[in-house]
Amino acid sequence: MKTDYTEKDYKWISELTDYPKNLNEKTGFFKDTSTINIPDNPIDKIIFQEKAKSAIRKIAQNKGHILMVGRPGTGKSMLANMFNIVLEKSMGDYLKPKKTIAAFPGKDNNHIRFAYEEPEALDKRISQINRNIDIASNNVKEFSLSAEINSIKKVKIYLILIAIISAIAGFFFQPAFILTSLTGIGAIFLFIQENNQKTQEKIQRETNSGKQNMVKHLTDMIPEILFDPREENKLMVRISEPNSKNMKGGFRHDPYQSGNLQTPPHKRAFLGAHAKAPVLYIDELKTLIKTNYMSDLLEIMQNKKFILEGGGNSGSGAADKSENSLKAKNIIIACCNYDTLAYLQKEGDGAFLSRIEDKGEVVNMENSVPETKKHIHQIVQYIKQEIISFEKEIKDAWGEILKKEGHEGVKQRCEHIFGKKLPEDYKLIAREFSKEAVCEIIKELRTRGSDQKLTCILRPVNGIIKTAEFNAIFDNAPVVEPKHVQNAIKEHISLEGGLSKDVIQSKKDLKKYINSLTDSIGYVVGLAVIESKSSGQMFGQPLPIHCQIISGGLDTVIASGKIGDIAKGAAQNVRASIKKIFSKINAPYIGHEMHIEYIQAHGGVEGDSASVAIATGLISDYIKQPVNQKIAITGSLTGDIILPVGGVTEKIRSVMDIDLNMEGVCIPWQNKHDIEPLLINKENEFVKYDNIPAIKIFRKAGKREAFNIYFCKTKYDAYKIMLGLDQNEIETKMSERSKNDFDMKQNLKAA
């Protein structure tokens, strides 16, 4: 295989040094964010998602449905809110309900009927009914218990008289005292009963409840207003956990169901989002699946109406039902992630997706976009929007204090918060971003993206922008500078990033320990990467690997530990690659047992990006040539070719730390563009190592602490960097080793 680099190849790599200048030209339209204007159209404030914005405008035009599918942080919720604003301004006055929804008694005690009425007309009708009921109530005789009280009083008097007579008789005939006792007790009981009746009569007269109970059958016939457009006028309702109760409505429990005072069902009914809002925003479809509401939603989307029914329990309201339907001509805006989309595609043969596509569109949110001048302009706009948002947050939190005490009072209070002295002219006001600081944000977006693209997962970047603002405020800097953004990025790492940071520190100590105790034969510094599920950010880390070849053993490869299927396949590919060299140099077959150990990789290893590192370690052990421990390596080995891998930018950043004492890294030739973010705000130059092209990045100002990135086409390019030997030298040493192994095996057989 031809491995020589041509002048065209060198030119292709040297073009990388032009990237900072090209980026400077793309950002030449501003010096800092103070000159940036924010668009008036709310949808234009969402950046990157052009397809979704176009779909939103079409949906707003024809009142259809939309399902936005994408990872968290790509702007789904923001687009839904912006859609609400646009629809409110354009068609909101026509889309909002105009009529009151009223509930009337139905054919029996468990049924109700709905009617859509003009609010003012219904008010007049209900007022007239109430006036008639008041008239009927006033014509009811005043509540009185006089008859009962008089009868009790008469019996009480008779008992008292009998008690007196029997007491007199007792002086002559003692058993008569028994009658005295009985009649006396009876008289006392009737006295208590008389007082109770008088108290009840007084209460009934004061509360007028007696008259009310007499006309209760009339008040139960009054229609109940369940929705009044004059009071509830939201165009869009956000539903976080869709279920039958909050989407359709239902019947409340009746607290007065005993004592023959049951509340009629139409007065216990309540409506959900379907009947009250023209636009329904389901923030996360996964919750809709969990609550088993999907079948109901599909039916309503199809029929545009539904029957209100009681709950599934056995309590009050379980048997209640409406006789006629409620209208449900809703526009559905829904969001979900890719795992939920996979479920929706299978569930009912994609019935929900079919309903959406019938009257709308399923939009796949962009995960990354090309680094064009247009998108860079949008990034600057986005940062400006976050600065304005930050400024508003400061005003909300400190506005009253600032008005009363001024900046000096705010400074003193902030010193109590942070427990340190702040600059004399400290002012808690938002800072604009310098162009160089914006480039640091672009660098972070490029690092989290891939294939020369900017990530569209922007939510984690919001925290970085605001932390950079605080850093600039604490430094009392006039604008946010690159160092403020760099420090903010270090502070804003995800859970996985925090764990990775601890692992990297551990790997630093491990690498120093291995270097101090070994001759570096068979040891190689590979590179691994982990990805945050929440933010999409990747975190690189060194991956020490130890490799051994035992001649004369089983012709196999053994990779210990928690190794994934792809990593196992990569190990087999490396074995085939080395056997190919044995075949080329006509080495006699004696069997080679290859052992691979990922040192302290307790979390397991998956992927093929360590295959070229494994090949380097095995060759090193076989020919007893030390590996350069100051250079790391990554790449996927297929035959002799090194193919590109993912996460290269973060892998390199993990070993560029000066404390790690690394001097360079070998990466696949085709991963060229993954280097571009590392050149932002850094001095760099194009160099060659023998004939292998490289980019030298200076980690400190003044061209200090150089770090070389080597671009390797084949494994022999990597061997030259890592082992210091070219192809002929490696094959010669392998031939000598195989001959010695064969001779030793023959001698053992003879012995």
Fraction of residues in β-strands: 15-25%
In percent, how helical is the residue content?
A: 40-55%
- Named at the architecture level, the CATH assignment of the domain at 498-735 is 2-Layer Sandwich
Rounded radius of gyration (Å): 41 Å
CATH class of the domain at 498-735: Alpha Beta
Question: Any overview of this molecule?
Answer:
The model has no long low-confidence stretch (mean pLDDT 82). Strands 5-8-12-1-13 form a five-stranded parallel β-sheet, sandwiched between helices. The protein is an alpha/beta fold and 751 residues long. The longest helix is centred in the middle third of the chain and has 46 residues, at 373-418. Among the domains are: 84-118 and 228-364, P-loop containing nucleotide triphosphate hydrolases (Rossmann fold), CATH 3.40.50; 141-214; 498-735, 2-Layer Sandwich (Ribosomal Protein S5, domain 2), CATH 3.30.230. 49% of the residues lie in helices and 18% in strands.
Spell out the blueprint of helices and strands.
Elements: H1 7-14, H2 19-26, H3 50-62, E1 65-69, H4 76-90, H5 92-95, E2 100-105, E3 111-117, H6 119-139, H7 146-170, H8 176-207, H9 209-214, H10 216-219, E4 224-227, E5 236-239, H11 244-247, E6 249-251, H12 265-268, E7 269-271, H13 273-276, E8 279-282, H14 285-290, H15 294-303, E9 305-306, E10 321-322, E11 326-327, E12 331-336, H16 338-346, H17 351-359, E13 360-364, E14 368-370, H18 373-418, E15 432-433, H19 435-448, E16 453-455, H20 459-475, E17 479-480, H21 482-491, H22 495-517, E18 523-531, E19 538-551, E20 556-559, H23 565-584, E21 592-598, H24 611-623, E22 631-633, E23 636-638, E24 641-643, H25 648-655, E25 664-668, E26 684-689, E27 692-700, E28 704-712, H26 715-723, H27 727-750
Parallel strand pairs: 1-12, 1-13, 3-10, 5-8, 8-12, 15-17, 20-21, 22-25, 25-28
Antiparallel strand pairs: 2-3, 2-4, 6-7, 9-11, 14-16, 18-19, 19-21, 23-24, 26-27, 27-28
